[in-house]
């Protein structure tokens, strides 16, 4: 069997696939991959995909060339390309801390693993002890993959011994990248280097450091507008936490932004770079404006108007909380995936303009079918998702649990360093609610608060996929605390295998968009060479995509109950028609009803009005009925 970052290929069986598919195949015997590594982790992951990638990491680490076998290939990259002197890293090759993984020439051409320089992540226990086993590795390549992917989940940091082990100074020097660490080793020969492989991993120094061990952080000087994307701000946070623990910590950064040690070395300005290191300033959260004691009014003239920024045409606004809800098997996930794929690729969504950006998809239902749906979408749209910035979760997590939530936020921060995130889809709410009671206002409020924190920190639109209750006319199930927090609510309906119909039942700060309909159209799936796939019985392997369809006319029995405000709307609408208005002016109805603005918006967003009238361009017309 051959393993790579792209997946696996079983030469005996003559088939391959992704690592997640391999992890889900519980019947597969993996004993022939290489040495058993079950004893490596005292806390093995319960997630099968994570365990599979950790097993892969351990196997690849053992398979990689070491010592003399690796020396020439490593030198080609570190010295030939990165210009790092060989004396800065030769001891690491000799001790096997730097290894070289040759290309896997036995796999099919589309599954070949390119050659890579490999170094290990070490797992740091809560008490600061370090596990000896390697269950997570970093693969650094000369070209073709700027993300430098890693394998495994059981690892935090790479720890390099002092260049001069005879005279260590009992201090860690932490920096983000391996190449920067190797560049600086000759400047600091007595220090142990800690390579974090990203600013989000600096926090793991809190486990490693002790009061008797000093810490020097040389942070990246980033100039991103968002604080969570700046290495120097994360270094300042960690420095403060270490000092609170009694650790002597100093954090430095290059004076010039976006100029690291290895870049300076390649410009023959390494000494200048070192002399221009400055201390990272204290990180202070922006102070909230202090309000005078007591209640007060603020003039409207002091409030700046914000123009809505749309993510998908009239459908989704940037930075908002939206929801797709409906009964089971109505096509909710098809709609969510269609939106997600369009945002990731930047292609139009059924005529609606789209802002392209990164997408994270929390998959809680139908995970096995997601890859087939993605392939069907690629074929139908003529767009590839291979290079698109869209990732799906490895499994379900409990977003109501603080510890799980923090772990999720850390993973999102890692992704936010690589791509500008625009959309997070949670499919479904119940699968990520930790089995708690959706009807409890307190628990739903905590869940909504977690989503709001996600929205605000990363500036993303969060799209929930949710179910209706026993009575579909009463809207999505669970506490009203969720609906009150939503900016946008979209009902997804499908009857008797007819079209999937979207009805915008709530749009907080704009006119709801008109109902839309889509037909689920079957697509015969193909492999990368365009050959159609068949199952064991010779039948085509298919999935579906959404194609626009005509909105079906509604039946009167489907109309929800109406209250006094809806009755008044009907009455004024009929009066305006009698006066000869066609279509009726929405402004004329509003003036006749003389309602407060918030009540008026609630009326327009009510189910009765949405299902009885078409409202667009300040005009209102009654829908046709059978």
**Roughly how many Å apart are the termini?**
61 Å
Looking at the structure, what is the overall shape? elongated
- Level-2 CATH architecture of the largest domain: 3-Layer(aba) Sandwich
Category by helix and strand content: alpha/beta
Strand order of the largest sheet: 18-17-19-20-16-21-22-23-24
Assembly state of the chains shown: single chain
Helix content: 25-40%
User: Which regions contain 5 or more consecutive residues with pLDDT less than 50?
Assistant: 23-48
What is the arithmetic mean of pLDDT? 82
Number of helices: 18
The CATH class of the largest domain is: Alpha Beta
Q: Can you tell me the CATH topology of the largest domain? A: Rossmann fold
Percent in strands: 15-25%
Q: How many structural domains can be distinguished in the coordinates?
A: 4
**Strand tally:** 27
């Amino acid at each position: 069997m051959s393993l790579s970052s792209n997946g696996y290929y079983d030469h005996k069986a003559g088939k391959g696939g992704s690592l997640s598919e391999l992890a889900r195949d519980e019947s597969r015997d993996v004993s022939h991959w290489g040495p058993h590594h079950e004893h490596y982790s005292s806390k093995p992951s319960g997630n099968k995909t994570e365990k599979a990638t950790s097993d892969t990491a351990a196997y690849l680490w053992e398979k990689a060339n070491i010592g003399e076998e690796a020396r020439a290939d490593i030198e080609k990259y570190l010295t030939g390309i990165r210009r790092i002197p060989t004396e800065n890293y030769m001891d690491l090759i000799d001790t096997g801390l730097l290894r070289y993984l040759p290309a896997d020439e036995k796999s099919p051409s589309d599954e070949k693993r390119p050659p890579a320089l490999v170094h290990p992540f070490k797992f740091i226990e809560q008490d600061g002890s370090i596990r000896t086993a390697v269950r997570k590795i970093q693969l650094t390549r000369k070209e073709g993959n700027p993300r430098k992917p890693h394998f495994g989940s059981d690892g935090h940091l790479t720890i390099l011994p002092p260049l001069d082990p005879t005279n260590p100074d009992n201090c860690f020097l932490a920096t983000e990248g391996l190449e920067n660490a190797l560049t600086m080793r000759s400047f600091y020969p007595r220090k142990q280097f800690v390579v974090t492989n990203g600013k989000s991993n600096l926090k793991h120094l809190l486990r490693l450091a002790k009061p008797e061990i000093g810490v020097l952080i040389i942070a990246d000087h980033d100039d991103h507008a968002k604080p969570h994307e700046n290495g120097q701000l994360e270094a300042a946070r960690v420095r403060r936490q270490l000092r609170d623990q009694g650790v002597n910590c100093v954090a430095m950064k290059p004076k010039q932004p976006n100029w690291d040690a290895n870049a300076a070395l390649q410009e023959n300005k390494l000494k200048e770079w070192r002399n221009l290191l400055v201390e990272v300033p204290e990180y202070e959260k922006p102070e909230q404006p202090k309000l005078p004691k007591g209640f007060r009014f603020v003039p409207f003239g002091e409030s700046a108007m914000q123009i809505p920024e749309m993510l998908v045409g009239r459908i989704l606004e940037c930075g908002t909380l939206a929801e797709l809800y409906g009964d089971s098997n109505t096509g909710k996930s098809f709609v969510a995936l269609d939106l997600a794929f369009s945002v990731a690729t930047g292609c139009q969504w059924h005529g609606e303009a789209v802002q392209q950006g990164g997408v994270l998809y929390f998959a809680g239902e139908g995970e096995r079918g997601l890859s087939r749906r993605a392939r069907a979408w690629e074929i139908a749209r003529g767009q590839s998702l291979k290079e698109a910035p869209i990732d799906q979760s490895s499994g379900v997590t409990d977003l109501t649990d603080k510890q799980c939530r923090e772990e999720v936020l850390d993973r999102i921060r890692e992704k936010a360093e690589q791509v500008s995130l625009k959309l997070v889809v949670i499919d479904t709410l119940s699968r990520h609610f930790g089995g708690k009671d959706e009807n409890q206002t307190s628990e739903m409020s905590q869940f909504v608060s977690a989503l709001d924190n996600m929205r605000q920190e990363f500036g993303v639109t969060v799209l929930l996929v949710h179910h209706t209750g026993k009575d579909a006319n009463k809207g999505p199930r669970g506490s009203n605390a969720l609906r009150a927090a939503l900016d946008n609510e979209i009902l997804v309906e499908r009857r008797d295998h007819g079209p999937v119909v979207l009805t915008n039942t709530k749009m907080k700060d704009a006119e709801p968009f008109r109902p839309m309909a889509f037909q689920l159209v079957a697509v015969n799936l193909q492999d990368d060479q365009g050959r159609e796939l068949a199952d064991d019985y010779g039948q085509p392997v298919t999935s579906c995509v959404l194609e626009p369809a005509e909105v079906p006319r509604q039946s009167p029995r489907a109309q929800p109950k109406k209250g006094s405000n809806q009755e008044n709307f009907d009455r004024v609408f009929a009066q305006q028609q009698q006066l000869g208005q066609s279509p009726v002016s929405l402004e004329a109805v509003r003036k006749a009803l003389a309602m407060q603005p918030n009540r008026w918006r609630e009326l327009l967003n009510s189910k009765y009005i949405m299902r009885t009238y078409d409202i667009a361009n300040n005009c209102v017309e009654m829908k046709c009925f059978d």
